[in-house]
Specification:
The complex is a heterodimer of chains A (744) and B (224). Chain A is of the alpha+beta class. In chain A, 35% of the residues lie in helices and 23% in strands. In chain A, a hairpin with a 2-residue loop joins strand 19 and strand 20. The radius of gyration of chain A is 26 Å and the shape is globular. Chain B has 224 residues and is an alpha/beta fold. Chain B is globular, with a radius of gyration of 15 Å. Helices cover 22% and strands 25% of the residues of chain B. Classes of the chains: A alpha+beta (744), B alpha/beta (224).
């Protein structure tokens, strides 16, 4: 400690993560000195994680409305009407920082938290997806994180009984100390049963359901998720800020809450996530325009001697808050008894507009703040933004100036990775909905009515996408292209996009360059969403993703929900059929900057991304979707990372069918990554029809080859045994991570 | 009136509605029976569905065997009633001593969700009466503790009495003798790790589960 500091210990507000200005603002709101409990409550609610204080000013630019949007950003989850009286709730979240410290529990509790967001809206969770960004496979600690994260998602997700239908797994140097563990969840409900977290009706009771409250996760949002990791190894001390999950408790909580809502016994339901009871009570009270008194003594506590501030800010998992009319309390307690979960009256709705914390009913007042101030008065920062000083130089350096590869097949082998090592550890089939399972471009689920179980004959499709290499070159264009990729992923399974959610994973907002990336990314998504007519219905922002002073590459990850209007056959899938004709659909541009191929050769974050006209991309997406819907396609794969080359290789290895391709001029055409394109495998007899339809739609198409045989050959570029590529594809993750052994 | 199948639901069970859907798609009727019930409500067959009964705490099935409904299931089985335990249900039936042996963690210590080829080893059971010995059925597996084990004496008995019902074509979990499912001496109680209810709809990639659940419905129908 530097000399002189001993006499003036750090003020309490700073140790809680509040700035001096924020402290002054709290004093102004209170008209007096806030006490320690009040400061603790403000510190969690005004944390970056809960208040979005650095990002809200930008997030406002997203288009968020459409005829079918029932709930946009700002609630537990976004909700859209998907027809047949069914509403779908969608949300994405990050659990990056906890997973870096304690991979198993960090990832597990990420799943638990997002499920509560879904069923707090009244929807039964029917699927989760996990986009993961992990450090390089040759780093032992990154492998430890990878194993722990996948085990945590598997252990919690399978046990809680919600299928995990896909995601992505990307390994890269920039995530070595700061993995990204994002999780997306989808739920469905009868459209008329939309529930919002509202505390209405003076005298109504706040009933805490689920786990007891412990010392785990105190300050999770303010200490852990709103600061960077240090480089002196002291982060292990943050482990008590990571919560511990209990999926069996969550499973019973889901069933009890859904039964409670089925029987109309709750006015509102709110999950306890970041900032715990403080967040749940203040949000429900503020949104309902009411106030609330909270009683500390009756709150079931895991250990003796907990301070009120610990009880109020604990992030213990598997807890929900239900607002119940007094006359319904007995029925609620009976449901809780049947499902063997705790249910305790811990507060009462008042008309005061204030959130008061009392030691007990009629006890001493420990805190008294305006309920709205915790949420609505949180500071809003327009942080300085600056484009990188060397941007012009960087953009002038195109990857097309790299020498042509000596061995194209070797580059393909280096790009191939079968991720079934990850997804075979997750139950991806529960509920009998999973028509297209992980390994495809998008997951496809049968859409059954949530109450009657009646099959609608239609489907929902879901994809998650993100590309940090594109966004490192150009966060704006990279973000727009990410959405285009998602749209094509949906198109190849016959689905049209209806809603997007995004998880904005960036570095420190205090770094002007990071804020510039963030703002550019928002604008890029906005342009693409406008062009496709798709609303953004929610999202999550994860900042301070960095370690040793270096921010991660900007990594916005999106989830896009699609609707399949007629699901009477399985989508074609990433496959080839012997003798099928190969068509490359969409506009190309042989620019290599931002590509995986360029990164493999040491060129990243430089040059400019290939040009994409969003209108052209949309036309290609629409045309492909219609061809798939009309059953004219035998196999299909979108073109994105790795370009046409990797798309062809993946089609070949996944189907065990060779490829003879031509009319690809050079390595730039093979590996450039313009999204909004797809490779289709078409029956020779239907090729003419397909070509005509694409021509009518004004979408460019090239006949690039034939499927069949046991070689993978692209004229003038490579000719190898398919088995060479297949072994590279299947062996990469098991070799690196260990697949375990089986007896016999 | 078709046969009625009682589908047992413990806290933590998660495949119960899938079994109901599959049974109904085959023309049967199904009713969920909660674990605290003491009667099966006159059902003609019982399925103990998959999931994580009581969170699998202590050991899969170890707590579930004490749920009140298991007394009714045991009585129904003793009376010759058809009982099938799928996945966690198989684990529950071994813990309840309705089937011999135990399910330990998969060799490789990983959860596994994948399609598996099963070879029918006996057609003399309530789950395989409509299949032929040697038939290969494509049925998904989804488990962490599916590695069947038993004493050498029990294994000899299972083999000698033709009580191994289905085997894996490629052993995914280390089970002794590639065992995927077995039956009791009366052949009316069957436990298996794979999920036949997940293979009853063309859209899901296999309909080979129909022959199994169809067999069960036939056995149930014989009691109506």
């Amino acid at each position: 400690m530097p000399a002189g500091d001993a006499a003036t210990p750090e003020p309490v507000h700073r140790s809680l993560g509040l700035t001096d200005d924020e402290y002054e603002l709290i004093r102004e709101i209170q008209g007096r000195e806030p006490n320690h409990l009040e400061l603790a409550m403000y510190s969690v609610m005004w944390s970056e994680h809960c208040s979005y204080k650095s990002s809200r000013i930008h997030l406002k630019r997203f288009p968020t409305t459409a005829e079918w949007v029932l709930v946009g950003p700002g609630e537990g989850a976004g909700v859209v009407d998907v027809g047949d009286g069914i509403a779908a709730a969608l949300r994405i979240e990050s659990h990056n920082h906890p997973s870096a410290i304690e991979p198993y529990q960090g990832a597990a509790t990420g799943v638990g938290g997002i499920l509560r967001d879904i069923f707090s809206m009244g929807a039964r969770p029917i699927a989760v997806m996990d986009p993961l960004r992990l450090g390089p496979l040759d780093d032992a600690r990154s492998r430890w994180i990878a194993e722990g994260v996948v085990s945590g998602i598997s252990g919690y997700g399978t046990s809680v009984g919600v299928p995990n239908i896909g995601g992505e797994t990307v390994f890269d140097e920039c995530y070595a100390e700061n993995p990204l563990v994002n999780v997306l969840a989808l739920g469905i409900m009868p459209a008329e049963r939309l529930v919002l977290g509202r505390a209405e009706g003076v005298g109504n009771l706040a009933v805490l359901l689920g786990s007891s409250t412990g010392r785990d996760g105190i300050g999770g949002v303010s200490v852990l998720a709103s600061a960077e990791f240090s480089d002196d190894g002291s982060d292990a001390d943050k482990r008590p800020s990571v919560q511990v999950g209990d999926p069996f408790e969550e499973k019973r909580l889901i069933e009890a809450c859904l039964e409670l809502l089925d029987r109309n016994l709750a006015v509102g339901v709110q999950d306890l996530g970041g900032a715990g009871i403080t967040c749940a009570t203040s949000e429900t009270a503020a949104k309902g325009g009411a106030g609330m008194d909270v009683f500390v003594a009756p709150i079931p506590q895991r250990e003796q001697g907990m301070e009120p501030f610990e009880v109020m800010t604990s992030e213990s998992q598997e807890r929900m808050l239900a607002i119940v009319e007094p006359g319904n309390l007995d029925a609620v307690l009976e449901i809780a008894r049947r499902w063997e979960i705790r249910a305790t009256v811990i507060g009462e709705v008042t008309g005061s507009g204030r959130l008061r914390v009392l030691s007990d009913r009629d006890g001493e007042v420990l805190a008294d703040v305006p309920a709205k101030s915790l949420e609505e008065d949180a500071p809003l920062y327009d942080r300085p933004r600056a484009e990188p000083a060397d941007l012009a130089d960087r953009r002038a350096d195109s990857a097309n100036s790299l020498p042509a590869p000596a061995d194209v097949a070797a580059d393909l082998r280096a790009m191939l990775a079968d991720t079934s090592w990850v997804y075979s550890q997750y139950d991806h089939q529960l509920f009998l909905n999973s028509v297209e399972t992980p390994g495809g471009d998008a997951a496809v689920l049968r859409l059954k009515h949530p109450t009657t179980g009646a099959d609608t004959g239609r489907g929902l499709a879901l994809t998650t996408d993100g590309n940090h290499l594109w966004c490192a070159v150009d966060p704006r264009a990279g973000s727009a292209l990410t959405f285009v990729e998602s749209a094509m992923n949906l198109a190849v399974v016959g689905a049209r996009p209806v809603a997007m959610v995004n998880c904005m994973n960036f570095g420190s907002p205090e770094d002007p360059e990071v804020m510039w990336q963030f703002s550019e990314s928002v604008d890029g998504f906005t342009e693409a969403l406008d062009a496709f007519g798709t609303p953004c219905i929610g999202g999550n922002v994860s900042l301070y993703n960095a370690s040793k002073g270096r921010p991660i590459d900007p990594t916005p990850i999106i989830g896009v929900l699609g609707v399949v209007d007629q699901l009477d056959r399985r989508p074609p899938g990433v496959t080839l059929v012997e003798g099928g004709r190969l068509l490359l659909v969409g506009h190309g541009d042989p620019e290599l900057s931002g590509s995986l191929w360029a990164a493999l050769h040491g060129h990243r974050g430089r040059g400019t991304l290939p040009a994409v006209e969003l209108e052209h991309a949309k036309a290609a997406v629409d045309a492909v979707r219609e061809l798939v819907a009309d059953g004219l396609v035998l196999g299909a794969h979108d073109v994105a990372q790795g370009g046409v080359g990797l798309a062809l290789a993946e089609l070949a290895v996944q189907s065990g069918t060779g490829v003879t391709a031509a009319r690809i001029a050079d390595h730039a055409e093979l590996f450039s990554e313009v999204p909004g394109r797809a490779v289709l495998c078409v029956d020779p007899e239907q090729t003419v029809v397909v070509l005509e339809r694409l021509e009518q739609a004004g979408v460019p198409v090239a006949r690039i080859g034939v499927a069949g045989g046991d070689r993978f050959a692209v004229k003038g570029l490579c000719d190898v045994a398919l088995a060479d590529l297949t072994s590279a594809w299947t062996d990469r993750l098991p070799d690196a991570l260990g697949s375990g052994t089986t007896q016999g | 009136m078709g046969a009625t199948v009682a589908v047992v639901r413990f806290p933590g069970t998660n495949c119960e509605f899938d079994v109901v859907e599959a049974v109904e798609s085959l023309g049967g009727q199904a009713q969920i029976v909660f674990h605290d019930e003491t009667s099966l409500g006159g059902a003609d067959a019982v399925v103990v569905a998959g999931g994580f009964a009581h969170g699998d705490y202590l050991r899969p099935g170890a707590i579930a065997r004490f749920s009140p409904v298991m007394a009714a299931v045991t009585e129904f089985a003793a009376d010759g009633g058809p009982v099938v335990g799928i996945c966690n249900g198989f684990q529950v039936l071994t813990e309840a001593n309705l089937l011999p042996g135990a399910l330990q963690k998969n060799a490789g210590l990983k959860f596994k969700c994948q399609m598996a080829d099963l070879v029918v080893a006996s057609s003399d059971s309530v789950l395989t009466s409509q299949a032929q010995v040697g038939d290969v059925l494509r049925i998904p597996i989804n488990h962490f503790e599916g590695n069947y084990t038993c004493s050498p004496e029990t294994l000899a008995e299972l083999r000698g009495d033709d009580r191994i019902v289905v085997r894996y074509a490629e052993n995914p979990n280390g089970s002794v003798d590639d065992i995927a499912g077995i039956c009791n001496e009366g052949r009316n109680v069957v436990g298996l790790m794979p999920h036949p209810e997940r293979a009853c709809n063309e859209l899901l990639g296999s309909v080979d589960g129909r022959v199994m659940l169809g067999s069960l419905l036939a056995a149930a129908g014989a009691r109506v």
